[in-house]
Amino acid sequence: MNIILLGPPGAGKGTQAKVLVDGKGLVQLSTGDMLRAAVASGSELGREAKAVMDAGKLMPDDIMVQIISDRISEPDCENGFILDGFPRTTAQAEALDKMLGEKGLPLDHVIEISVNDSVLIDRINTRVAETPEGERRDDDNAETLKHRLEVYHEQTAPILPYYEGRSMLKKVDGMKPIDDVSKQIEAIITAG
Ligand code: AMP
After folding, report:
1. Which of 48, 88, 92, 127 is the best mutation target for the ligand 1 pocket, counting ligand atoms within 8 Å of the beta carbon and taking the most?
2. Which of 26, 112, 140, 167 has the most CB atoms in a 10 Å sphere around its CB?
3. Structural domains of the chain, count
4. pTM over the 0.70 mark
């Protein structure tokens, strides 16, 4: 089973992906985690990614498409994967369709975790107040979130009608408690 989790930054895609990893034995493919690993390794990709991520912008589509194409070809993805943070532009969504078609892989569910901007801003302010700086992501601050939300609305939200037009998009209320959101996702998956 292959799933895309869509939604704004801080909606809980990573949290829900981990629930699916534990419950369904799927692999979580978080492009943000992959880029943070590249930053930690000090590679050339990592240097580029650090500047882009700190500014709350997006990495170039061709780089991200190549990263995902390589990753979903690895054997551990055979039982199914959850895309968390990809696709983030319509160009990435189109490239994903093409690559899945070429590899003969299905796309089973596209799930939007919907959260209002004001709730995301409240969440980040709480995290900033409660978490020591060293324990937070470098891009986890109110200023960068503002840019990331603008980028989300301009470049990522247009993906929603792309999947809606294919009758693939299912929406869950991401403002409910974590367990409740997991149950909404489970119901979608169980319904097939
Ligand atoms: P995330 O952990 O998914 O919130 O991603 C953190 C940052 O990594 C984003 O703000 C982008 O700068 C970058 N990033 C992650 N995934 C993508 C993607 N699919 N396309 C472009 N940039 C990405």
Report:
1. 88
2. 112
3. 1
4. yes
